[in-house]
Design goal:
The protein has strands at 3-8, 20-26, 36-42, 54-55, 60-63, 69-77, 88-89, 102-104, 113-117, 120-127, 142-148, 157-162, 168-174, 177-185, 190-191, 193-194, 209-211, 216-217, 222-223, 225-226, 230-234, 248-252, 258-263, 275-279. The protein is mainly beta. Strands 4-5-2-1-9 form a 5-stranded antiparallel sheet, with no helix packed on it. Strands 11, 12, 14, 16 and 17 form a 5-stranded antiparallel sheet that branches. Strands 3, 6, 7 and 8 form a 4-stranded antiparallel sheet that branches.
Length: 280
C-alpha cells in the first residue's frame, strides 16, 4: 500500500536540541518528496509553531528550534504536484482532537514515523437520457457531491467536484468508507440524481460506492433524471422589499439532503429582480 514515511532523526549538535528533524520519502520508491509540509501544533491551542520548516532535495526536513512542550504533528499534502496523499495527523489520526500529543524536551525525539495513505478516488461521467439532446453548455453548472453513506457522518458531504466539459467528474482524496454520489444541477431541465438512480438520499434505487485507501473506482456514471417540477420565488430585502441578486437558495428533501438549488437573478436580463428557480 503506498505510503509516505517521515522519520525523526537524532540531533547532532547543541543547536539541534529542541528541534524536530525529519526525512520525508516515498516508502514505495524510496525517493525523497517535497509534496508534504509538516506542522507542529500546540497540543492545547492548536496554534501552529513557527517556523514550519524547510525541506531539501534529499527529503531532509527540519522544524525548529522549538520550545519544550507538547505538540501534535500534522502532515499537510497537496503542495506542488498533487500526489493524492491524505492530510493526516501523526499515527493516522484524522482530526486534531483525536491526534496523539508528542512531548518535546531538551533532546530530539527518536523513532517517530508518519505513514500517509493515498486517498481513494470516485470518478465517472454524468450522462443524459438518450431522448435529451446534449448541447454545448449541457454540462455547465453541475456539481457532483460524495456523501458519507453510513456511520456517524451518514448524510454529510465528504467532498465534491465540478463536471468537466465532456461530462466527466473525479472526486479524490476520500477516506475509506461507503459513499453515495449525487449530481446536482443548477436550474435546468434536470433533477438532482444519484449514482444508481433516484433523486433523494434514501431512495432505494441509489447505489453505495465502497472504497479503500488508494482505490480508484471508475465508471460510476450518473444518468440525470428529467425534472418534473420546480420552485419559483423571489429574494427580497426584509426591510424595504427590494430585490436581492446572487443569493443561493437551496431545497432539501425529507431526509435533509440538498435536492436542488438556484441563484437569484442567475440568468436575468432585466436587472435585479431577485427571482430564482429550483428544478427537481
Amino acid at each position: 500500500m503506498p505510503i509516505l514515511q517521515v522519520e525523526l532523526l537524532k540531533g547532532r549538535t547543541v543547536e539541534q536540541k529542541r528541534e524536530m528533524v525529519r526525512k520525508v520519502t516515498d516508502a514505495v520508491t524510496g525517493e525523497p518528496t517535497r509534496d508534504v509540509s509538516l506542522i507542529a501544533m500546540d497540543s492545547q491551542s492548536a496554534f501552529p509553531s513557527w517556523p514550519f520548516g524547510n525541506i531539501d532535495t534529499n527529503g531532509d526536513y527540519t522544524i525548529g528550534p522549538l520550545p519544550p512542550g507538547k505538540y501534535k504533528l500534522l502532515a499537510v499534502t497537496g503542495f506542488g504536484r498533487d500526489s493524492g496523499y491524505l492530510t493526516e495527523f501523526y499515527n493516522n489520526k484524522r482530526s486534531f482532537f483525536e491526534a496523539d500529543s508528542l512531548e518535546l524536551t531538551n533532546a530530539n525525539m527518536l523513532n517517530i514515523n508518519i505513514e500517509l495513505e493515498k486517498g481513494a478516488t470516485i470518478q465517472g461521467f454524468v450522462n443524459l437520457a438518450e431522448s435529451i439532446p446534449a448541447g454545448v453548455d449541457t454540462m455547465n453548472d453541475i456539481s457532483v457531491v460524495a456523501f458519507y453513506a453510513d456511520g456517524d457522518k451518514a448524510g454529510k458531504a465528504a467532498s465534491f467536484d465540478a463536471v468537466q466539459f465532456n461530462g466527466g467528474y473525479r472526486i479524490d482524496k476520500l477516506f475509506p468508507g461507503n459513499y453515495k454520489v449525487l449530481a446536482l444541477p443548477i436550474p435546468s431541465q434536470f433533477a438532482a440524481s444519484y449514482f444508481g438512480g433516484g433523486t433523494n438520499f434514501d431512495d432505494g434505487a441509489s447505489s453505495v460506492v465502497t472504497v479503500d485507501y488508494g482505490d480508484i473506482t471508475t465508471d460510476k456514471n450518473i444518468q440525470l433524471e428529467t425534472a418534473t417540477g420546480g420552485i419559483l420565488g423571489t429574494v427580497q430585502n426584509a426591510v424595504d422589499g427590494s430585490a436581492i441578486s446572487q443569493v443561493v437558495v437551496i431545497a432539501y428533501d425529507a431526509s435533509g439532503h440538498a435536492a436542488g438549488f438556484g441563484i437569484s437573478d442567475l440568468y436575468s436580463n432585466d436587472g435585479e429582480t431577485g427571482e430564482f428557480t429550483i428544478t427537481g
